[in-house]
UniProtKB/TrEMBL annotation:
InterPro entries documented for this protein: Amidohydro-rel, Deaminase_MtaD/DadD, Metal-dep_hydrolase_composite, Metal_Hydrolase, MTA/SAH_deaminase
Organism this protein belongs to: Nitrosomonas halophila
CDD domains: ATZ_TRZ_like
Function: Catalyzes the deamination of 5-methylthioadenosine and S-adenosyl-L-homocysteine into 5-methylthioinosine and S-inosyl-L-homocysteine, respectively. Is also able to deaminate adenosine.
Broad enzyme group: hydrolase
Keyword S-adenosyl-L-methionine in record: no
HAMAP family, per database record: MTA_SAH_deamin
Name of the molecule in the record: 5-methylthioadenosine/S-adenosylhomocysteine deaminase
Entry EC no(s): 3.5.4.28, 3.5.4.31
Catalyzed reactions per annotation: S-adenosyl-L-homocysteine + H2O + H(+) = S-inosyl-L-homocysteine + NH4(+); S-methyl-5'-thioadenosine + H2O + H(+) = S-methyl-5'-thioinosine + NH4(+)
A Pfam cross-reference name: Amidohydro_1
Amino acid sequence: MHPTVIDTLIEARWIIPVEPSSSILTEHAIAVHQGVIQAILPIPEARSRYQPAHHVALKQHALIPGLINLHTHAAMTLMRGLADDLPLMTWLKQHIWPAEARFVDARFVREGTQLACAEMLKGGITCFNDMYFFPAAAAEVVTACGLRAGIGLVVIDFLSAYASDADDYLAKGLALRDQYPRHPLLTFCLAPHAPYSVSDKTLSKVMTLAEQLELPVHIHVHETQAEIEESLTTHGIRPLMRLQRLGLLGPNLIAAHMVHLNEDEISLFNQYGGHVAHCPTSNLKLASGIAPITTLLQQGVNVGLGTDGAASNNRLDMFEEMRLCALLAKGFSGQADALPAWQALRLATLNGAKALGLEQITGSLVAGKAADIVAVEFSELELSPCYDPVSHLVYTAGREQVTHVWINGQLLLDNKELVTLKESELLSHAAYWQKRLTS
Ligand SMILES: CSC[C@H]1O[C@@H](n2cnc3c(O)ncnc32)[C@H](O)[C@@H]1O
Ligand SMILES: [Zn+2]
């Protein structure tokens, strides 16, 4: 029988598909053609069955599904370290929002998002769920770099350089979505910033549009105790109940943070089938608290992982989020098995894909899904010996060990070198913005 011609054959010491079972395949290869995983086979069988245009043999590596950053503000890389060691509301109102009012324009978002894409690619992130001003600039960057993204059609009830009022934000967002019909890498979410910054009237419009256009809704919710107290004072009701009253709870909701929740709220959120973007580092750094992830997972809520923006994390590093979420769940519950390594890996991959409605496309390595693949090298001293590669991935490895990244079958990180972005250009953009933000 003649071998089948394919684009790429990637051989590795281990393949960790994440689905359908928690199995680890040893000395296997992934056959990729036209952006799609064709098969995962033992290396000798793959070699005889396929004739690849590109053959990549990764002898000391594990292949994992691309990591999915379920909540970020990519362009905020340009504000990393601008204001640290502050609680959320002081950080936002006294530092970040004034800086955004002065400096954020389409160029800021383009160059900040490029910087974020570079950092995320180098750390094995293949897909991110973004929420920021000038989303057209982010969409342009994402498509040029070849990442996958959920672009937030942001709306907030204040004037910015991007839009004048809620209707203007929504009109601009919908026009952007119309520019990318059925794009292979871009999806769109309606992104009302938070219950405290978006009025009932605007949230109702978001709900109607989400239903009409079948769009997910991405929003910050119950991030701090102060948010809940302010809502009780202003609306006489907790934010989550307000979202329920406005019809926003449901399987299309991606709720970022969800730190302060009572038992009734967890059960209500679960009944509606919403998704949580857990951001453990940002929640610690802004002193917001620790989200009750073990309880959410026990109830059956789909929980993914996010970094939040680089100005509140300060890294866009999903290896760190995996490790931290597993450790916090143990410490918080007093149970060492509260969130095992396998589950942390699932949160960072398949659960993120589910939240974005992309579970048929990405989040695991199975035939028929897009080839969103990350290679992690295991030859460092601290990764030897290796009894369990998933244990090392979550508890020991870091983004420094990521060597190759494919998205939709396209090689975007080749032996730690970015293929579609120039690091020297990114550094000069960063220097430009540093000068502007400090002048
Ligand atoms: C209107 S664009 C998005 C908006 O969100 C701000 N932001 C960044 N991180 C957080 C966070 O953790 N909670 C709330 N808001 C956040 C960002 O600065 C933009 O203004
Ligand atoms: Zn955020």
